[in-house]
Structures are given as C-alpha cells and as structure tokens.
Amino acid sequence: MAKFDLHIHSNYSDGSDSIPQLIENIRNAGIEIFALTDHDTIDGCLEIEKLVPAEVKFIRGIELTCTARGEKCHILGYNYNPKDSGLCSLIEKGKTLRRSKLEKRIEYLKEVHGISLTKEELDWLYSRKSVVKMHVANILVERGLSDNNVDAMKKYLDGCKTGNSRFDGEEAVKILKEAGGIPVWAHPLGGEGEKHLTEEEFLPKLKTLIACGIKGLECYYSRYTKKESSFLVKCALENNLCITGGSDYHGKNKDVALGTLNKDLIPIDFENLLLLNI
To answer: How confident is the model at residue 164, as a pLDDT?
Structure first.
C-alpha cells in the first residue's frame, strides 16, 4: 500500500507552506498519494496540480466548515469538478463569510484589547484567499504578544463573537456530490484542541451526518489513537462509508508531520482502506 496523506493544508488557507514548498516536503516525506484540502478554497489545488511529479498521485480536496442540522462539523470534499458552478458559488459565499469574521475580529482586538493592526498587517490579511483566525493570531505572535498562535487565539480572539459563518452542511454535501465529489466527515471524533467524543456522543452525530449525505469517515487522523481509529473503521464498514486518513498538516502552524495518520505512530491496517476508489 502506498504511503498517503489525504488531509493537508497550504498557505492558501492556514498552512505555512507555499505550493512549491509543499511539493518538496511531500517528496521528502515519501508520500505517493496526497490531497490538498485547504479551508473553503480550491485555488491551491488549481496551482499544485500543475506541479505534481509524475510518480505522485494528486487528489483535489477542500475542507468546508459546516453546521449540519445543528451539529458543527468539517466536511472534506474529494475528486470534485473545480469548474462546477454550484461549487464555485459556494466557495465565493465562503469568502464573504470569512471576510465578515475577519472584520469582527479586527474590531474586537481594537475595542477589547486596544490592539490596532497596521496597514501592512491589514493588507496582508485581506490578500489571503481564505483568511482564518490563525492568520490574525500569527500577527500577534510576531508582535511578541504571545508565545504561539494557540495561546494567542485563546487570549485575544476566542472571546470574539463572530456569529454563524458556517456553511449549511446539507447544502455543502449536496453541492459536493453535484460537482462529482465525495463528501467525507473530517476528524469525526473531534479536531485539533477539541475534546474527543465518546462512542455514545458520536453515534447520534454520525446518524445525523449520514442523513445529510456523507459518503466517508476520516478514520485515521494524527490526533487519534489506535483504539479510536479502529472504532471509526468499524462504524464506517457498518454504514457502507469509505475510509480515509490524513495528518491535517499545516506546516509550521501546527505540530504534526506529513503522513502522520495516528497518534500512536503505529502501523495501520490498510485491508479495508478504500482510498476513494483510486
């Protein structure tokens, strides 16, 4: 089985690697199959697919921030048509939502913490294809106001109420399918810094996401133990869902290496890994 990583971010969203840097790092890590899954943008995919070495297989991806029937979740989309009008419209909607969140955070920093961003900092933020909280936090770290972006977010940004800026999960899943894509529930037991769901908490949420139309579960994830991944694989097989895995690599913005598919750093049983029919 080839070494793969189906959850990777570049500096088109909240990763630190440029596309050329990411290609080099993927080659150095020995990864043979990968997906770029930037938040709410496909611009990085459009650039990287022109640079992928012949011996490496690339899968177009995206990660959409959603609320599905009241449940907060992230939906990964794979193998979509990047020219699909519905998907392009959804991405444009996402840019507007993220811009609104950014403006609220800028105002919050000024009013609550007395921190005004410079013209250069603002120009850089507004130039981003997909601006996220981490971008603002990194500016605060560069100013010496915090040791790292996680602490900066907790201290200066987490109190900011940005309102509901998530996609509707059912709409997002529907649009991904219409664009020929495969919608997969990302880090379903909980993402970075989140308390992991128990089995009793997870199963009702899984039922909701299945009703919304997901086709896969990210069973292997850099923050999950062997026990957690085994449980997710069992749930995926019982519900006829494809099984995927990814590191959630963010370069220097997150302490996780490319190709890290479980917390225990143990060999993974690939027997039932479907790899999105590739």
So the answer is: 73
Task: Average the pLDDT over 200-204 and give the result.
Answer: 96
Residue 22, domain extent: 4-84+183-277
Query: How deeply is 12 buried, as exposed, middle or buried, from its count of CB atoms within 10 A (0-12, 13-18, 19+)?
Result: buried
Tokens, residue 209: 């996401």
Contact 219, 269 (CB under 8 A): no
pLDDT digits (tens, 9 = 90+) for 185-201: 999 999 988 899 999 99
In a domain, 109, yes or no: no
DSSP assignment, residue 255? S
**Would 155 be classed as within a structural domain?**
no
Phi, psi of 121 (to 5 degrees): -65, -40
Strands 167-168, 71-78: parallel, antiparallel or unpaired by DSSP?
unpaired
Domains held by the chain: number: 1
Beta carbons of 125 and 136 less than 8 angstroms apart = yes
Asked whether the beta carbons of 137 and 115 are under 8 A apart, the reply is no
The length of the chain is: 278
User: CA-CA distance, 8 to 12, in Å (whole number)?
Assistant: 11
pTM of the model: 0.87
Q: For the segment 130-171, what is each residue's pLDDT rounded down to a tens digit?
A: 788 888 999 999 999 999 888 999 999 999 988 777 899 999
Query: CA-CA distance, 131 to 118, in Å (whole number)?
Result: 17
